[in-house]
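Memo to structure team: turn this sequence into structure tokens by end of day. - J.P.
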Amino acid sequence: MSERNEMNENIQSQKSAQVLKGDPYKKLIWVTILLCVLFVGLLVGHRMLSSTQDARHRELQNKILEENNQLIAQYNEKVLERNKLMSQTQEIVLPEPAQEGWDIIDASNVPVKGGQAITTTRLEALSGGLLLLNRWHSLPSDFIVAEQGLKSVGTETSFKVPVANRSVSLFPEAINALSRFVNAAKEQGLEHYIVRQGYRTMETQTKYWNTETARHPNREGDGLIEAARQNVSYPGTSDYQSGFSFEMDVYNKDDSVINTAKFQETEQAAFLNAEGWKYGIVFRFPTIGYPTTETIDKSYVTGLNSKLKMNAYRYVGVPHATVMHIKGFVLEEYIDYLIKTPHILVYENGNLRYEIYRIPETGSDQTHNIPTNAVHFFVSTDNMGGLVCAITY
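Reply from structure team:
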């Protein structure tokens, strides 16, 4: 019996060993099954995620397409509005110009017939002639780029335009205008003009200002500034700093009579005041009774003390000087006029002579259009946010 029991125990022990020996394979099978289930789950999840992303992508594409269609529709509406406006503009009939004398027609509702694109550099804009400087408008911070264009009046004209000294400088356009005017005056028997001063540096204007403020030791702050401004412009606001403004006088070393005469009482001054605009030159600061007894006070516009009597003239270019002469404008009034009427046509005896238009200024190099039949043109900043183009026909 005991032998049988022992035998049974051995058999049972062998079965248990076999069972224990077979467990690793079962575990491997279960692990494999689990990995397969996990892989299937990941695959299903990936497909579901991909399906969701595709749906979102299609939704985004549809949204973008819808927005693009809206932008296209808005653009088409604007094109239609513009074409309608152009159609209406083309129907505008400008009045016939006067057949005798000068006539200025407001063409602000008519676009400039630009046939060619030009680029006006910032340097050209700063040295174009209309740069406004007064107590309310100071020198642009980038004016330094234009200073390189200033030339000695005496040197450039071989001293045919007399100057107080070689350092008297202006921009070339102003020098050429002065030279043409002096030659024309000489043909009329009028000589001995002299340019006392021209361009002032910031250093020179500051020196004048400091000298003037020192004369008011009992004032300070705004009171000191206002007192000093009665005689001297604050640095950066003097028209002499534009490079286009100059002081005129007469001088002849062999004629003591003319040397002691007041400039505005001479024939030379009368000729300059009457004919200067034909060369692009205007009197800069008219005050009551000065430079002539008929002169209307414009000091409230220029900001200059009405008690000051300055023989300051300014080159602005022939087209602009012509309009200023016809309208009786000073520079400030002329620019205000262009802001209100940004496109004008100037006729002489029924013939178009000048076309002038003003566009918003970018403050850098700027591309715009001009008519293909323009004989000559020049462009200038007005220092009030506008770029002014003057075309000669």
